[in-house]
Amino acid sequence: MDKHSKIYIAGHRGLVGSAIVRYLLSEGYENLILSSHIELDLINQTSVKNFFQKERPEYVFLAAAKVGGIHACNTYKAQFIYENLQIQNNIIHYAYIYGVKKLLFLGSSCVYPKDSLQPIKEEYLLTNSLEPTNEPYSIAKISGLKMCEFYNEQYGCDFISAMPSNLYGINDNFDLENSHVLPSMIRKFYLAKNLYEDNFNLIRKDLIKRPITNVNANDLTNSEIENLLNLYGIEKENKTIVIFWGSGNVYREFLHVDDLAEALIFLMYNYYESKPINVGVGKDITINNLAQLIKEIVGFKGEILWDKSKPDGTPRKLLDITKLTQIGWQPKTKLADGIRRTFQFYKENNSTLSC
Question: Which of 154, 161, 281, 284 is deepest in the core (most CB within 10 A)?
Answer without folding.
Answer: 161
